[in-house]
Amino acid sequence: MNINIRKELSFLFYIKNIALFIILICISVHIEAQKLIIDNHGHSGLVHDVIFIKGGKQLISASEDKTVRIWDVSDGSLIKTLRFQIGDGVDGKIYAAALDPTERYLFLGGFFDKAGGDPKNIGSIRVVDLQLGKISHTLKGHNNIINDLAISADGKWLATASADQTLGLWDISTIASSSSITARGFLKGHSGIIQSVDINQNGSRIVSGGTDGIVKAWNTADLSNITFIDGKVHLDKIRKVLFTPDGSKIISGSEDGDIVVWTNAGRFLSKLDNIPSAVNSLAVSKDNKYLVVFSRKGVVYNLDTETVITDFNYHDNAVSAAVFAPFKKFDEEEGLYLASAGGNDKNIFIWDALSGKPVRNLVGNGRGVFAVGFNTDENTTAFGQSNPTELLDDAPLEKTFNLTNLSLDPEKPNTKSFIRNKNKFLGHAIEKQSEQRINFGNNGVSVDELKDGIIRSYSFVNDYNEVVIGSTYSLKRFKPNGEFLNSYEGHLGETWAISEIEKQDRLLSSNSDQTIKIWNLSSGENLATLFITSKNEWVIWTPQGYYEASAGGEKYIGWHINKGAGSLAEYHDVSAFSKKFHRRDVVLKMLETGSFDKTATALNIQKQDVNKILPPKIKWTSPVNNYTTTTLSNYNLEVSISSAIDITQVKLFVNGRPLAIGDKLTSTGNTTNKTVSYSLKLSSEDMIGRRGFDVVPDEEEVVESSKEFQIRFFAANSIANGFSEDRTIIYKPDAKKPSVNTNQGNSEKREITKLETEDKEEIPLSNLYLVSIGISEFKNPQYNLNYADDDARAVSKIFKAQEGKMFNSVKTIDILNSYATREKILSTFHKLEEYTTPKDFVIIFIASHGLNKDNNFYILPHDGDSSNPRISCVDWRDFSDLIGNMPAKVLLLIDACHSGQLGANVGQSKVDNTEAVRELSSGEFGVVIMSASTGAESSLEHPDWGHGAFTLSIIEGLEQQKADVKKDGKIYLRELDFYLAERVRELTGGRQHPTTQKPSSISVLPLISY
């Protein structure tokens, strides 16, 4: 059996074209029903296909990280993630995707079984019904992995390319009505692995290319009719082949950088200027005029003149997929747009092929970790998430994480105090002799090219008596003479760096899978995994699922629950089980003892079966489809909810905010199984739909006025909580007007306007309610601050000026100094909860002290007593319930860890607000929070500023318009977030770091207009 496993090298996209049956024989992986995985809200593996849908409104991407993701092109936000049956290693990797012309059926190929599993399963093709949100078909026939897929424009034929050296041809014209699809035939003719396939528009001809270096064309009417294209013009393996959209030409690209143009009959036409490295992807514009070719850099050719017109060099590593967009205007600028996927961070750029200018970056929040070191005295690891020179040896250490108090410091450390890899001993150095061997004096260690890949990192450990080697696929420990000792299993990518934690029998490793892992050096047990985002959020967890995290960090890991190869998998954020798994003490004890067994004994815990503590299961009855268009002004929603234990709470969320809770919903059944319904008034003036950009054809058609509502239910029991799948309802009240079918996505003349792109979350004619709380004078004067009340007045002034601009009306409530009593603050929030509607916007600003007591967080009011906060202070739990359940969109600006003047500690200091921010920014409440400081940091003020650093930066960013990065007359949440992060850090000398947390339902939030 001949299995082709794809892998990514550091600076070159590479597919290894050799038989790997040794791995298949030697490895047997048990598929677990549940796996704790990272979700960085983007891709962490190679993206092999990108597909525009809905006329360019959205984009589908399929990746080796075993997921399919759907993105909003207008603002770059992630809409949805599809997950499947997966196992360890290669099991579940997706190498190819194709979409039928109706945009309903998504075909996926890859490695769909464990290594050494059934070849028919490995080479199967999964078909996802995007309308119903389920796997509808599984196509079997190939005996090896699927490398490529292509569908004819008429939707009749699916062509498949496999590592079993055959092409498959499938008639999929009856897929909507047939429960099974069989292959019309399997075509043999290549002497190597087939890496690429394409089919022309009418489905009459197929073109293929593979490792034998030959391009072949096939006639679908007569499968025995093969055209061998002009002999072997390519001198190396073929990476990519395609037809031009009109079917008149074939273009092929190979590993040596050659690009060849042929007639569709197989006659050689020309060879374009080759690129300096392997051709990874090709795409041709719909007018057949432009060709883009990608290795790492993108090169755009004019096919008429066969000359280069521009290039694209924004990806920092190999690019694995590219496609031209169906629209011609973006942000009011004419252009020829396309999407390309690649780089170290797996970016998907939307960019103009004529100018090389990027307009959007669709990317997750994770980054590969290229460097790691350790300071034993401080029990702190330093790491780096960039590699500017592309040489691993000098990748910089940029941030630190303390393993004693589990805290991140984003400031650059003194790198001399950290020990990295140890490669020298007694005046001799380890030398890398080849990609699979290192030498030390007369000794040497070799790794297996098939099982381990290429050596990336190495270091002496255990007083220079042993060596650890990190490779493409493995992390292993040896004696210097080559004797194997043990391996460290758990990373999913290449190990870029390793460092020993001396005197603790521990090992650190950093990897392209965007994690740092901590191991028991002797036993090989993984003790903890650390993931740090590009925004300095973090989460550290044990393999058993116990974790600690920053306020926004826990949303980046979750439990993947396999449901079988024929079903989509479930995924639950680990926060859904926080009552069971949020255990800082377990993480620390694991690092201390070096063993889960010892930790379990010490803390009286055990490994949890997640299937036994799942949140209530929510199943949609109405609507059934993911997207529903209706003309009805009232739409009946209904779900069935089941739970192993009593259901404690149910909420209905519309566009990210709670619309109905508990008794406002109609419910029948009992405490563990119930049906919940609600009549949604789509025509109500209080209901404002989401605004995405519209795809506007140039034809003289009338686009209907419509509102789009994103709906989901929330349910909780005493152990866990979770959400239903999203449902989108599109309300079109005037059915008499002709509609535009945006699902076809085949109009040449489309545009995305600036207004439609940037104002997705703008609420037309909305009212703003602003509550501004600032307390400088307390009943107990020892708590007094200098500028908190001035901060509150300044924020009120900024937003009051937006009346008639961003908002229809602005109602401000200033609660300052002696008026800011506990009773006044809580009664104000009660009124807001009662009177606000879904179309309103609420901003709450708080400048005061915050304090912790018995693990609860409190806001200190004017009449508060820090020694008795439960009675005299504003309990954060009451605060969360009040503002978290408002139907309006809520932005909280919180500066509640004041320490007074810079350099002094006045009032409460070193107060950790992590849990408070975590609670209110969770999906259950969905509040957008901008916090002045993170964790145990203090919030600083100074006479030179006349304000706190946080508020001064808000004033500069909004009132002085310094946060308007795009200079378009509006300032958005993401722009203010970026400005605050840089400016507060600058003002405080790196002592204060503001943070922003927002629910996934909010992608773009405009704040002011000028």
Please tell me about this protein's structure.
Among the domains are: 615-758, Immunoglobulin-like, CATH 2.60.40; 767-1009, 3-Layer(aba) Sandwich (Rossmann fold), CATH 3.40.50. Helices cover 11% and strands 40% of the residues. It has 13 helices and 79 strands. The strands form 21 sheets. A 6-stranded antiparallel β-sheet has the order 47-48-49-50-51-52, covered by helices on one side. Helix 4 packs across helix 5 (596-603) and helix 8 (822-835) runs parallel beside helix 10. The termini are far apart.
Q: CATH fold name of the domain at 767-1009, please?
A: Rossmann fold
Low-pLDDT regions: 1-31, 691-704, 735-763, 899-909
Judging by the overall fold, what is the CATH architecture of the domain at 767-1009? 3-Layer(aba) Sandwich
Helical amount: 10-25%
Average pLDDT rating: 86
Beta-strand share of residues: 35-45%
Shape by Cα distribution: globular
- Our Rg estimate from Cα atoms comes to 29 Å
Span between N and C termini?
Answer: 66 Å
Largest sheet: 6 strands, antiparallel
Identify the CATH class of the domain at 767-1009: Alpha Beta
